[in-house]
Amino acid sequence: MKRLGILLSGRGSNFEAIARHIDKNKLKAKIAVVASNVESAPGLQRARQRGFDAFFLSSKGLSREAFDRQVIHVLQEKQADLVCLAGFMRLLSPAFIQAFRHRILNVHPSLLPAFPGLDAQRQALEYGVKVSGCTVHFVDEGLDSGPIILQAAVPVLDEDTEESLSARILEQEHQIYSKAIQCVLDGRVRVEGRRALQISR
Ligand code: GAR
Fold this sequence. Notes:
By secondary structure, the chain is α/β, with parallel strands linked by helices. About 35% of the residues lie in helices and about 25% in strands. The mean pLDDT is about 95. Glycinamide ribonucleotide (GAR) binds near residues 43 and 108.
């Protein structure tokens, strides 16, 4: 069984969706470890309640590289095959990306390359787009810029608030993240330059 290392900084609903898909045998994987850079992250509590190994890793006073070395150490010790960023609000150092090249996924609440970075749903509302959504992509050295594995679109309604749009997008995040993880674990995704291509079997 392939092993997932999950990194989160907050609520942890994407982590929980992954755990639910695994429980229902819709995602064939095992959560090897959950780690967070935020001690009070609700996602860390939820992980502990579910009985997973869950660690707070402090970044206080550490350079990005030094913090990332700690994270890499934990992921390697727990033999993670794939790293899933689930609301992990830190940029990764090049050394981290190299240690897990094409083995780090992220979910982002917009149709990338539109609205990278923070507050993607607010950016979408403020821009006035009529369609937004979410993206699962490989993580590279840039900000939300790696090859795209899956996307899902949702409408933006005139009456939407940041909360209502975020909730509509989040529902889709919870679906496509596990799908993308399964595709990658099954070796059904091949990266060619910017493109992540699905290998049909
Ligand atoms: C999710 O909406 C995720 O897409 C976003 O943070 C939220 C985390 O929610 N991530 C980013 O914006 C990364 N750039 P969760 O903690 O409930 O999974």
